Amino acid sequence: MADLQPAPTTLSVFDQIEPYHHESVVFCHDEETGLRAIIGIHNTVLGPALGGTRMWHYASDADALHDVLRLSRGMTYKASISGLNLGGGKAVILGDAKTMKTPALLRRFGQFVERQGGTYITAEDVGVNTADMAEVRRQTRHVTGLPGEMGGGGDPSPVTAYTTFLGMKAGAKMAFGSDALAGRKVAVQGVGHVGVHLIEHLLEEGATVYASDYYADRLKAVVGAHPGVTAVGLDEIYDLDVDIYAPCALGATLNDDTIPRLRAAVVAGCANNQLADEHRHGPMLTERGIYYAPDFLINAGGLINVYSELHGYDRAQAFAQAETIYDKTLNIFHYCAAHSGTHPQQAAIQIAENRIAEARAAKEAVLA
Ligand code: NAD
Predict the structure, then answer these.
(1) What are 203-230's pLDDT values in tens digits?
(2) In b/e form, how buried is each residue of 45-63, taking b as 16+ CB within 10 angstroms?
(3) Taking CB atoms and a 6 Å cutoff, what residues make up the pocket around ligand 1?
(4) Which residue is closest in CA terms to ligand 1's atom 12?
Protein backbone atom coordinates (compact mmCIF):
# COMPACT_ATOMS: atom_id res chain seq x y z
CA MET A 1 0.00 0.00 0.00
CA ALA A 2 1.21 3.53 -0.58
CA ASP A 3 2.82 5.07 2.49
CA LEU A 4 1.75 8.38 1.20
CA GLN A 5 1.52 11.73 2.83
CA PRO A 6 0.72 14.67 0.57
CA ALA A 7 3.78 16.29 -0.96
CA PRO A 8 4.48 19.93 -0.09
CA THR A 9 2.56 21.58 -2.91
CA THR A 10 4.54 24.77 -3.41
CA LEU A 11 8.02 23.32 -3.81
CA SER A 12 9.89 23.02 -7.10
CA VAL A 13 11.16 19.59 -8.10
CA PHE A 14 14.70 20.41 -6.94
CA ASP A 15 13.50 21.94 -3.68
CA GLN A 16 11.51 18.78 -3.04
CA ILE A 17 14.58 16.60 -3.66
CA GLU A 18 17.17 18.65 -1.78
CA PRO A 19 16.42 17.70 1.87
CA TYR A 20 16.79 13.98 1.15
CA HIS A 21 20.37 14.14 -0.23
CA HIS A 22 19.87 11.76 -3.15
CA GLU A 23 22.69 10.82 -5.49
CA SER A 24 20.31 10.86 -8.44
CA VAL A 25 16.64 10.93 -9.31
CA VAL A 26 15.74 9.62 -12.77
CA PHE A 27 12.49 10.48 -14.53
CA CYS A 28 11.48 7.79 -17.05
CA HIS A 29 8.96 8.46 -19.78
CA ASP A 30 7.82 6.39 -22.76
CA GLU A 31 4.98 7.46 -25.01
CA GLU A 32 4.40 4.11 -26.67
CA THR A 33 3.75 2.11 -23.49
CA GLY A 34 2.50 5.01 -21.35
CA LEU A 35 5.33 4.48 -18.88
CA ARG A 36 5.89 7.25 -16.36
CA ALA A 37 8.28 6.27 -13.62
CA ILE A 38 10.77 7.77 -11.19
CA ILE A 39 13.86 5.94 -9.94
CA GLY A 40 15.32 7.35 -6.71
CA ILE A 41 18.94 6.37 -6.05
CA HIS A 42 19.54 7.67 -2.57
CA ASN A 43 22.93 6.33 -1.56
CA THR A 44 25.41 3.81 -2.99
CA VAL A 45 28.28 4.08 -0.49
CA LEU A 46 27.72 0.57 0.90
CA GLY A 47 26.78 -1.00 -2.43
CA PRO A 48 24.25 -0.81 -5.26
CA ALA A 49 20.95 0.83 -4.35
CA LEU A 50 18.40 -1.96 -3.96
CA GLY A 51 14.72 -1.33 -3.49
CA GLY A 52 11.39 -2.35 -4.95
CA THR A 53 9.26 -0.79 -7.64
CA ARG A 54 5.84 0.41 -6.57
CA MET A 55 2.98 0.98 -9.00
CA TRP A 56 0.36 3.34 -7.64
CA HIS A 57 -2.23 5.80 -8.94
CA TYR A 58 -0.77 8.91 -7.32
CA ALA A 59 -2.93 12.00 -7.07
CA SER A 60 -0.10 14.09 -8.57
CA ASP A 61 3.44 13.81 -9.92
CA ALA A 62 4.60 15.65 -6.81
CA ASP A 63 3.08 12.94 -4.60
CA ALA A 64 4.88 10.27 -6.60
CA LEU A 65 8.19 12.09 -6.23
CA HIS A 66 7.59 12.57 -2.51
CA ASP A 67 6.88 8.84 -2.11
CA VAL A 68 9.97 7.68 -4.01
CA LEU A 69 12.23 10.12 -2.12
CA ARG A 70 11.01 8.96 1.31
CA LEU A 71 11.01 5.29 0.43
CA SER A 72 14.47 5.25 -1.17
CA ARG A 73 16.00 7.07 1.81
CA GLY A 74 14.36 4.46 4.07
CA MET A 75 16.01 1.70 2.02
CA THR A 76 19.45 3.24 2.63
CA TYR A 77 18.86 3.08 6.38
CA LYS A 78 17.33 -0.40 6.24
CA ALA A 79 20.27 -1.87 4.34
CA SER A 80 22.84 -0.12 6.49
CA ILE A 81 21.41 -1.08 9.87
CA SER A 82 20.88 -4.67 8.71
CA GLY A 83 24.58 -4.94 7.95
CA LEU A 84 24.01 -5.53 4.22
CA ASN A 85 26.45 -4.24 1.61
CA LEU A 86 23.73 -2.37 -0.20
CA GLY A 87 22.69 1.18 -0.80
CA GLY A 88 19.17 2.52 -0.87
CA GLY A 89 16.93 3.05 -3.87
CA LYS A 90 13.34 2.71 -4.90
CA ALA A 91 11.24 3.24 -8.01
CA VAL A 92 7.64 4.24 -8.57
CA ILE A 93 5.58 3.70 -11.69
CA LEU A 94 2.72 6.18 -11.93
CA GLY A 95 -0.60 4.55 -12.76
CA ASP A 96 -3.20 2.03 -11.72
CA ALA A 97 -1.60 -1.41 -11.56
CA LYS A 98 -4.96 -3.07 -12.19
CA THR A 99 -5.57 -1.33 -15.53
CA MET A 100 -2.29 0.14 -16.80
CA LYS A 101 0.29 -2.56 -16.09
CA THR A 102 1.27 -4.34 -19.32
CA PRO A 103 4.22 -6.60 -20.19
CA ALA A 104 5.45 -3.94 -22.66
CA LEU A 105 5.40 -1.23 -19.98
CA LEU A 106 7.32 -3.47 -17.57
CA ARG A 107 9.92 -4.33 -20.21
CA ARG A 108 10.38 -0.64 -21.04
CA PHE A 109 10.83 0.04 -17.35
CA GLY A 110 13.44 -2.74 -17.32
CA GLN A 111 15.38 -0.86 -20.01
CA PHE A 112 15.51 2.22 -17.78
CA VAL A 113 16.78 0.07 -14.89
CA GLU A 114 19.44 -1.38 -17.20
CA ARG A 115 20.59 2.14 -18.12
CA GLN A 116 21.50 2.80 -14.49
CA GLY A 117 24.39 0.38 -15.02
CA GLY A 118 23.83 -1.67 -11.87
CA THR A 119 23.76 1.29 -9.49
CA TYR A 120 20.07 0.47 -8.98
CA ILE A 121 18.68 -3.04 -8.48
CA THR A 122 14.94 -3.42 -8.46
CA ALA A 123 12.43 -5.82 -6.83
CA GLU A 124 8.68 -6.00 -6.34
CA ASP A 125 6.63 -3.71 -4.13
CA VAL A 126 2.99 -2.67 -3.90
CA GLY A 127 1.22 -3.22 -7.23
CA VAL A 128 4.11 -5.25 -8.65
CA ASN A 129 4.65 -8.98 -8.13
CA THR A 130 7.27 -11.65 -8.77
CA ALA A 131 5.78 -12.47 -12.21
CA ASP A 132 6.16 -8.77 -13.16
CA MET A 133 9.80 -8.92 -12.08
CA ALA A 134 10.28 -11.85 -14.44
CA GLU A 135 9.09 -9.53 -17.26
CA VAL A 136 11.47 -6.74 -16.16
CA ARG A 137 14.26 -9.36 -16.08
CA ARG A 138 13.95 -9.74 -19.86
CA GLN A 139 15.61 -6.33 -20.21
CA THR A 140 18.01 -6.19 -17.29
CA ARG A 141 19.98 -8.42 -14.94
CA HIS A 142 19.55 -5.92 -12.13
CA VAL A 143 16.43 -7.52 -10.66
CA THR A 144 15.68 -9.45 -7.47
CA GLY A 145 12.45 -10.81 -6.03
CA LEU A 146 12.24 -13.30 -8.88
CA PRO A 147 10.15 -16.47 -8.82
CA GLY A 148 11.81 -19.58 -7.36
CA GLU A 149 12.08 -21.28 -10.76
CA MET A 150 14.24 -18.35 -11.96
CA GLY A 151 16.63 -18.72 -9.02
CA GLY A 152 14.86 -16.14 -6.89
CA GLY A 153 13.48 -16.26 -3.39
CA GLY A 154 9.86 -15.64 -4.38
CA ASP A 155 7.59 -13.69 -2.05
CA PRO A 156 9.72 -12.01 0.65
CA SER A 157 6.75 -11.50 3.02
CA PRO A 158 7.40 -14.53 5.28
CA VAL A 159 10.89 -13.24 6.12
CA THR A 160 9.51 -9.72 6.66
CA ALA A 161 6.88 -11.16 9.03
CA TYR A 162 9.60 -13.04 10.89
CA THR A 163 11.79 -9.98 11.50
CA THR A 164 8.69 -8.00 12.51
CA PHE A 165 7.83 -10.75 15.00
CA LEU A 166 11.40 -10.65 16.42
CA GLY A 167 11.28 -6.86 16.73
CA MET A 168 7.96 -7.20 18.55
CA LYS A 169 9.48 -9.70 20.96
CA ALA A 170 12.35 -7.30 21.68
CA GLY A 171 9.76 -4.61 22.48
CA ALA A 172 7.90 -7.02 24.77
CA LYS A 173 11.14 -7.84 26.58
CA MET A 174 11.57 -4.16 27.41
CA ALA A 175 7.95 -3.42 28.27
CA PHE A 176 6.99 -6.60 30.12
CA GLY A 177 10.33 -8.08 31.19
CA SER A 178 9.82 -11.15 28.99
CA ASP A 179 9.72 -11.65 25.26
CA ALA A 180 7.21 -14.48 25.52
CA LEU A 181 4.02 -13.40 23.78
CA ALA A 182 1.75 -16.12 25.19
CA GLY A 183 -1.30 -14.43 26.68
CA ARG A 184 -0.40 -11.04 25.20
CA LYS A 185 -3.09 -9.15 23.30
CA VAL A 186 -1.89 -7.93 19.89
CA ALA A 187 -3.73 -5.69 17.40
CA VAL A 188 -2.64 -6.32 13.80
CA GLN A 189 -3.68 -3.58 11.38
CA GLY A 190 -3.75 -4.99 7.86
CA VAL A 191 -3.92 -8.69 7.07
CA GLY A 192 -2.08 -8.60 3.75
CA HIS A 193 0.94 -10.65 2.71
CA VAL A 194 2.98 -9.85 5.81
CA GLY A 195 0.12 -9.41 8.30
CA VAL A 196 -1.13 -12.96 7.82
CA HIS A 197 2.29 -14.53 8.38
CA LEU A 198 2.76 -12.36 11.46
CA ILE A 199 -0.59 -13.53 12.82
CA GLU A 200 0.50 -17.14 12.34
CA HIS A 201 3.64 -16.56 14.44
CA LEU A 202 1.55 -14.85 17.12
CA LEU A 203 -1.04 -17.62 17.30
CA GLU A 204 1.67 -20.26 17.42
CA GLU A 205 3.12 -18.52 20.46
CA GLY A 206 -0.26 -18.28 22.20
CA ALA A 207 -1.06 -14.57 21.75
CA THR A 208 -4.60 -13.26 21.40
CA VAL A 209 -4.97 -11.44 18.10
CA TYR A 210 -7.31 -8.64 17.00
CA ALA A 211 -7.17 -7.70 13.34
CA SER A 212 -8.52 -5.09 10.95
CA ASP A 213 -8.35 -4.72 7.19
CA TYR A 214 -9.63 -2.23 4.65
CA TYR A 215 -11.12 -5.09 2.64
CA ALA A 216 -13.91 -6.71 4.66
CA ASP A 217 -13.87 -9.91 2.57
CA ARG A 218 -10.14 -10.37 3.09
CA LEU A 219 -10.50 -9.85 6.84
CA LYS A 220 -13.39 -12.32 6.97
CA ALA A 221 -11.33 -14.94 5.11
CA VAL A 222 -8.33 -14.51 7.41
CA VAL A 223 -10.43 -14.63 10.59
CA GLY A 224 -12.27 -17.69 9.24
CA ALA A 225 -9.02 -19.51 8.55
CA HIS A 226 -7.39 -18.58 11.87
CA PRO A 227 -9.44 -19.41 14.97
CA GLY A 228 -8.34 -17.11 17.78
CA VAL A 229 -8.35 -13.96 15.66
CA THR A 230 -11.09 -11.38 16.35
CA ALA A 231 -12.08 -8.90 13.61
CA VAL A 232 -12.21 -5.24 14.65
CA GLY A 233 -13.14 -2.01 12.89
CA LEU A 234 -10.74 0.20 10.92
CA ASP A 235 -10.80 3.02 13.46
CA GLU A 236 -11.61 0.92 16.54
CA ILE A 237 -8.14 -0.66 16.39
CA TYR A 238 -6.50 2.46 17.88
CA ASP A 239 -8.63 2.33 21.05
CA LEU A 240 -8.28 -1.35 21.87
CA ASP A 241 -7.06 -2.44 25.27
CA VAL A 242 -4.08 -4.39 23.91
CA ASP A 243 -0.43 -4.89 24.86
CA ILE A 244 0.97 -4.46 21.37
CA TYR A 245 -0.11 -2.55 18.26
CA ALA A 246 1.28 -3.83 14.94
CA PRO A 247 0.79 -1.45 12.00
CA CYS A 248 0.99 -3.70 8.92
CA ALA A 249 -0.97 -1.66 6.36
CA LEU A 250 -0.31 1.95 5.45
CA GLY A 251 2.32 4.39 6.65
CA ALA A 252 1.72 7.46 8.85
CA THR A 253 -0.70 5.70 11.22
CA LEU A 254 1.27 7.05 14.20
CA ASN A 255 0.17 10.66 14.29
CA ASP A 256 -1.37 13.39 16.46
CA ASP A 257 -4.78 11.73 16.36
CA THR A 258 -3.83 8.11 17.01
CA ILE A 259 -0.92 8.22 19.46
CA PRO A 260 -2.95 9.67 22.36
CA ARG A 261 -5.51 6.90 21.83
CA LEU A 262 -3.10 3.97 21.97
CA ARG A 263 -3.17 1.80 25.09
CA ALA A 264 -0.44 -0.57 23.91
CA ALA A 265 2.99 -0.54 25.57
CA VAL A 266 4.72 -1.70 22.38
CA VAL A 267 4.33 -0.63 18.75
CA ALA A 268 5.94 -3.04 16.30
CA GLY A 269 4.74 -3.59 12.76
CA CYS A 270 5.97 -4.03 9.21
CA ALA A 271 4.50 -0.95 7.52
CA ASN A 272 7.01 1.53 6.07
CA ASN A 273 7.12 5.13 7.37
CA GLN A 274 4.77 4.55 10.31
CA LEU A 275 5.59 7.85 12.01
CA ALA A 276 3.73 10.67 10.26
CA ASP A 277 6.51 13.02 11.38
CA GLU A 278 9.49 11.17 12.85
CA HIS A 279 10.81 14.28 14.65
CA ARG A 280 7.56 14.80 16.57
CA HIS A 281 5.92 11.41 16.77
CA GLY A 282 9.06 9.44 17.66
CA PRO A 283 9.55 11.46 20.88
CA MET A 284 5.78 11.49 21.54
CA LEU A 285 5.72 7.69 21.77
CA THR A 286 8.74 7.61 24.08
CA GLU A 287 7.24 10.28 26.36
CA ARG A 288 4.17 8.08 26.73
CA GLY A 289 6.28 5.10 27.75
CA ILE A 290 5.58 3.24 24.51
CA TYR A 291 8.39 1.11 23.07
CA TYR A 292 8.40 1.80 19.34
CA ALA A 293 10.42 -0.71 17.30
CA PRO A 294 11.87 1.23 14.31
CA ASP A 295 9.95 0.23 11.20
CA PHE A 296 12.84 0.12 8.75
CA LEU A 297 14.79 -2.13 11.11
CA ILE A 298 12.16 -4.71 11.97
CA ASN A 299 10.70 -4.97 8.45
CA ALA A 300 14.17 -5.61 6.98
CA GLY A 301 13.43 -9.31 6.44
CA GLY A 302 12.20 -8.72 2.90
CA LEU A 303 15.40 -6.89 1.97
CA ILE A 304 17.52 -9.58 3.64
CA ASN A 305 15.67 -12.15 1.52
CA VAL A 306 16.22 -10.38 -1.81
CA TYR A 307 19.85 -9.61 -0.90
CA SER A 308 20.38 -13.33 -0.60
CA GLU A 309 19.37 -13.69 -4.26
CA LEU A 310 22.40 -11.67 -5.33
CA HIS A 311 24.67 -14.45 -4.06
CA GLY A 312 22.62 -17.51 -5.02
CA TYR A 313 19.41 -17.69 -3.01
CA ASP A 314 19.61 -19.62 0.25
CA ARG A 315 16.39 -19.50 2.28
CA ALA A 316 17.91 -20.96 5.46
CA GLN A 317 20.73 -18.42 5.32
CA ALA A 318 18.22 -15.58 4.83
CA PHE A 319 16.27 -16.65 7.91
CA ALA A 320 19.55 -17.02 9.88
CA GLN A 321 20.52 -13.45 8.96
CA ALA A 322 17.01 -12.31 9.90
CA GLU A 323 17.61 -13.59 13.45
CA THR A 324 20.00 -10.68 14.09
CA ILE A 325 17.07 -8.24 14.10
CA TYR A 326 16.07 -9.26 17.64
CA ASP A 327 19.39 -8.20 19.19
CA LYS A 328 19.63 -5.09 17.03
CA THR A 329 16.20 -3.91 18.18
CA LEU A 330 16.96 -4.71 21.81
CA ASN A 331 20.26 -2.81 21.60
CA ILE A 332 18.46 0.27 20.32
CA PHE A 333 15.98 0.14 23.19
CA HIS A 334 18.84 -0.22 25.69
CA TYR A 335 20.70 2.69 24.08
CA CYS A 336 17.60 4.90 24.33
CA ALA A 337 17.06 3.86 27.95
CA ALA A 338 20.61 5.01 28.71
CA HIS A 339 20.42 8.27 26.72
CA SER A 340 17.50 10.46 27.62
CA GLY A 341 16.31 12.80 24.91
CA THR A 342 16.65 10.21 22.18
CA HIS A 343 14.08 7.84 20.72
CA PRO A 344 14.35 4.53 18.84
CA GLN A 345 13.80 5.87 15.32
CA GLN A 346 16.45 8.55 15.83
CA ALA A 347 18.90 6.06 17.34
CA ALA A 348 18.34 3.62 14.48
CA ILE A 349 18.93 6.35 11.88
CA GLN A 350 22.12 7.38 13.68
CA ILE A 351 23.48 3.83 13.67
CA ALA A 352 22.67 3.51 9.97
CA GLU A 353 24.30 6.85 9.13
CA ASN A 354 27.41 6.04 11.19
CA ARG A 355 28.03 2.85 9.22
CA ILE A 356 27.72 4.76 5.94
CA ALA A 357 30.03 7.53 7.17
CA GLU A 358 32.66 4.97 8.21
CA ALA A 359 32.47 3.23 4.84
CA ARG A 360 32.75 6.56 3.02
CA ALA A 361 35.80 7.54 5.10
CA ALA A 362 37.43 4.17 4.42
CA LYS A 363 36.84 4.56 0.67
CA GLU A 364 38.25 8.08 0.68
CA ALA A 365 41.31 6.90 2.62
CA VAL A 366 42.00 4.27 -0.06
CA LEU A 367 41.65 6.87 -2.82
CA ALA A 368 43.83 9.47 -1.05
P1 NAD B 1 -0.41 -5.89 1.30
O2 NAD B 1 -0.85 -4.91 0.28
O3 NAD B 1 -0.38 -7.34 0.97
O4 NAD B 1 -1.29 -5.76 2.64
C5 NAD B 1 -1.70 -4.57 3.20
C6 NAD B 1 -3.10 -4.79 3.75
O7 NAD B 1 -3.47 -3.63 4.49
C8 NAD B 1 -4.16 -4.99 2.68
O9 NAD B 1 -4.89 -6.19 2.93
C10 NAD B 1 -5.04 -3.74 2.81
O11 NAD B 1 -6.41 -4.00 2.51
C12 NAD B 1 -4.85 -3.38 4.25
N13 NAD B 1 -5.16 -2.00 4.60
C14 NAD B 1 -5.01 -0.87 3.86
N15 NAD B 1 -5.41 0.21 4.54
C16 NAD B 1 -5.82 -0.23 5.76
C17 NAD B 1 -6.32 0.39 6.92
N18 NAD B 1 -6.49 1.71 7.00
N19 NAD B 1 -6.63 -0.38 7.98
C20 NAD B 1 -6.47 -1.71 7.94
N21 NAD B 1 -6.00 -2.37 6.86
C22 NAD B 1 -5.67 -1.63 5.79
O23 NAD B 1 1.03 -5.40 1.77
P24 NAD B 1 2.15 -6.21 2.52
O25 NAD B 1 3.11 -6.77 1.52
O26 NAD B 1 1.55 -7.13 3.54
O27 NAD B 1 2.92 -5.03 3.25
C28 NAD B 1 2.33 -4.37 4.37
C29 NAD B 1 3.19 -3.17 4.74
O30 NAD B 1 4.53 -3.60 5.04
C31 NAD B 1 3.33 -2.11 3.63
O32 NAD B 1 3.42 -0.86 4.24
C33 NAD B 1 4.67 -2.47 2.99
O34 NAD B 1 5.26 -1.34 2.37
C35 NAD B 1 5.46 -2.93 4.20
N36 NAD B 1 6.54 -3.86 3.88
C37 NAD B 1 6.28 -5.03 3.27
C38 NAD B 1 7.34 -5.90 2.98
C39 NAD B 1 7.09 -7.23 2.32
O40 NAD B 1 7.97 -8.09 2.34
N41 NAD B 1 5.92 -7.46 1.74
C42 NAD B 1 8.64 -5.57 3.36
C43 NAD B 1 8.87 -4.36 4.02
C44 NAD B 1 7.81 -3.51 4.28
Answers:
(1) 999 999 999 999 999 999 999 999 999 9
(2) bbbbbbbbbbbbebeeebb
(3) 1, 3, 126, 156-157, 160, 189-195, 212-215, 218, 234, 248-250, 270-272, 299, 302
(4) 190
Average pLDDT for residues 55-67, to the nearest whole number? 94
Q: Say how many Å lie between the CA of residue 271 and the centre of ligand 1.
A: 6
Residue whose Cα lies nearest atom 41 of ligand 1: it is 157
**Pairing state between β 49-50 and 291-292:** unpaired
Burial class of residue 152, CB neighbours in 10 A (0-12, 13-18, 19+)? buried
Average pLDDT over residues 242-270: 96
Q: Give the model confidence (pLDDT) of 321-335 as tens digits.
A: 999 999 999 999 999
Residue 1 pLDDT: 42
Catalytic residue, candidates 78, 90, 101, 328? 90
CA of 190 to the centre of ligand 1 (A): 6
- Quick check: is 90 catalytic? yes
Q: How far apart are CA 119 and CA 22, in angstroms?
A: 13
pTM confidence score: 0.93
Atom of ligand 1 at shortest distance to CA of 302? 40
In order of 109, 173, 201, the CA distances from 169 in angstroms are 40, 6, 11
Q: Whose CA is nearest to atom 18 of ligand 1?
A: 214
